[in-house]
Design a protein that fits this description.
single chain; 420 residues; eight-stranded parallel β-sheet; 8 strands; 49% helix
Length: 420
């Protein structure tokens, strides 16, 4: 079972894909953006490899305006070798990647322009996966689209549009149940008729259920039968409802006990799981470590995670900080659930000025003997202003991060203290 996340890594600097306004587009600007975005993608892939993350969704914004006529750059030729090099890292690591076009890619739209643009967008997504030289198990995920007042007719329109697509796109396309219109039973009927693999989304299913009552596990088994031959292992989308937001809003982080309860129903049918969650890779690593088996259940893996979380937790709760340190002294055990339970509960706490000061001073200790006088003055002024309530933004943390970079404190530069 591979577990992965979608598009964004909130704790890895310089990995966001850059964009520009349409009015700013020139070949020079596009070339610069694409080059930087490919750098970002490569950093994401290398991070995933380092964390044993085998499933990843590549953001659609990799190539700005890729399916728009305004992009006249021959980016496929210009960056072919760069794509190949990144793809080699993906393939050699055993990682599986995917892409998910946005809400404006609607194959069954009655608007001819929308349909045409949707085909162009699918061609772009397919080109990216082809340039990376990934196999057909690396998919493009798509929703069916709108009902347009006649769901049966809309389904027929989708089928006709699908059959007109190039075979290279059809070989990569998979379809997913959505949270408003097409439920899992309807999507399964479409998938079976057109021989398209079906992605089961658990949260969408809870919000937009089928009239036929089945458990999540039963729907997953039915979906598994649509994944054939070169499609690879069945893939599902898993998310948890944010209890404080509208139905369908993804939670900030994955509750590990709830996740473990979900996968406990897996028997012979074990799918790959794409997490759709706000904290992205953080929950992914949590789920990977929590489901580890055999020799992979090693305390050193939790210790490594703790080295990233420790100052963030100290900032929020000195008691949790002490409790986790005590927990990790049990070298022959693997208290992964207790470890993440303490972390998650701490992350829900409001920031207290006394705890904030304590953590900041611990971090400051790494370069207090190296920092220049003007850096010291600037740091303590910012810290005091925050703790005294004179400013609402903890700007001292930006100063600390800059110092960590300047004085080459790699341990700190990677710390989640600066990012979550």
């Amino acid at each position: 079972m591979s577990i992965g996340y979608a598009c964004v890594n909130p704790v890895l600097p310089n990995t966001g894909f850059r964009k520009c306004r349409k009015s700013q587009v020139t070949d020079v600007i596009l070339s610069e953006l694409i080059s930087r975005n490919l750098d970002a993608l490569e950093r994401l892939i290398e991070y995933n490899i380092s964390k044993n993350i085998k499933l990843f969704r590549i953001g659609s914004d990799l190539i700005p305006f890729a399916s728009d006529p305004i992009n006249t750059l021959d980016w496929k030729s210009e960056y072919r070798e760069r794509f190949r090099a990144i793809g080699n890292k993906i393939v050699s690591s055993g990682m599986r990647v995917s892409m998910h076009p946005g809400q404006y890619t609607v194959l069954n739209s009655p608007d001819e322009k929308v349909y045409t643009n949707s085909v162009l967008d699918l061609e772009y997504h397919c080109s990216v996966l082809d340039l990376l030289e990934t196999g057909p198990e690396n998919k493009i995920v798509l929703h069916i689209g709108g009902a347009y007042g006649d769901k049966k007719s809309a389904i027929q329109t989708f089928g006709k549009a699908f059959k007109t697509l190039d075979r290279s796109i059809r070989n990569r396309l998979v379809i997913e149940n959505d949270d408003r219109i097409f439920n899992i039973e309807e999507v399964l009927e479409i998938g079976n008729e057109l021989s398209i693999p079906v992605v089961f989304d658990n949260l969408h299913n809870s919000i937009n259920p089928s009239q036929t009552h089945m458990s999540e596990h039963e729907w997953m088994i039915r979906c598994s039968h649509t994944w054939l031959g070169n499609d690879g292992v069945q893939k599902i989308h898993y998310s948890q409802q944010d209890k404080n937001k509208r139905p369908g809003a993804h939670s900030e982080r994955i509750d590990i006990k709830e996740f473990m309860g979900f996968i406990s129903s897996f028997k012979d049918n074990v799918p790959d799981i794409m997490l759709e969650v706000k904290d992205k890779n953080l929950s992914t690593v949590k789920c990977i470590l929590s489901t580890a088996e055999g020799r992979n259940r090693q305390i050193r893996n939790l210790e490594e995670e703790w080295s990233l979380y420790k100052y963030k937790i100290l900032e929020l709760s000195a008691q949790s900080y002490k409790s986790i340190r005590e927990l990790l002294k049990l070298k022959r055990e693997y208290p992964v659930t207790e470890f993440y339970d303490l972390i998650d509960k701490s992350l829900e706490l409001p920031l207290d000025p006394m705890n904030a000061r304590n953590a900041a001073l611990h971090v400051w200790g790494y370069f207090k003997d190296k920092a220049q006088d003007k850096e010291k003055i600037k740091f303590f002024r910012s810290l005091n202003d925050y703790c005294d309530g004179k400013i609402k933004t903890p700007t001292y943390k930006t100063l600390l991060y800059d110092l960590a970079v300047k004085y080459q404190q790699e341990y700190l530069v990677k710390s989640y203290y600066f990012f979550i």
